[in-house]
Amino acid sequence: MSDSSPARAAAPVLDVWCELQCPDCRTALDDLRALRDRYGDRLELRLRHFPLEKHRHAFAAAQAAEEALAQGQGWPYVEAVLGRVEELDREGEAFLIEVARELGMDAEEFDTALIDGRHILIVDADQAEGKAIGVTGTPTYVIGGERLDGGKSQEGLRQRVEEIADRLLAGQGA
């Protein structure tokens, strides 16, 4: 039997609507790292895909991120790709596969996943849900029913996320 007590509520979720060819999302990485450091597993950071049409490799990058998640390295992969947006701009899918190889993942499986489109439905569903709740750009955060748009400015957003997370955690008695 697991040691997680049924009385303990699930961690609050921070949905991060992101696009891996987006320079603003790269800037947001510092905030996401700080949130992970502060909350650990008390706050679930969940990557949500919102590829923008103006970035031609964004849809493939979203699929690649899902493959990285399937291979157990979702966030490390996302951070590696976002940290090198210019290379993604220049090299496209070849770069996505190279990053997988650098991180020790099965690069051939990445290539196959991009060809067979096994993750397209997840990306499409995220994008549709994002549009339905009013996401128009990236990064956008949703926590505790509140949508915070980081595409225009990220000023003060981490503090706002922390305020909401602290309130949600206090409500759980965590």
How does the overall form come out from the CA principal axes? globular
Spatial arrangement of strands, main beta sheet? 2-1-3-4
Which residues form runs of ≥5 with pLDDT under 50? 1-6
Structural class assignment: alpha+beta
According to DSSP, the number of beta strands is 4
Order of helices and strands: EHEHHHHHHEEH
Architecture overview:
With 174 residues, the protein is α+β, with helices and mostly antiparallel strands. 55% of the residues lie in helices and 11% in strands. The chain is built from 8 helices and 4 strands; from the N terminus they run βαβααααααββα. It has a 4-stranded mixed sheet, sandwiched between helices. Helix 2 packs parallel to helix 5.
What order do the helices and strands come in, and which of them pair?
Elements: E1 13-18, H1 23-39, E2 44-49, H2 58-70, H3 74-82, H4 85-91, H5 93-102, H6 107-116, H7 120-132, E3 140-143, E4 146-149, H8 157-172
Parallel strand pairs: 1-2
Antiparallel strand pairs: 1-3, 3-4
Helix pairs in contact: 2-3, 2-5, 2-6, 5-6
Kindly summarize this structure in a few lines.
By secondary structure, this protein is α+β, with helices and mostly antiparallel strands. It has helices at residues 23-39, 58-70, 74-82, 85-91, 93-102, 107-116, 120-132, 157-172; strands spanning 13-18, 44-49, 140-143, 146-149.
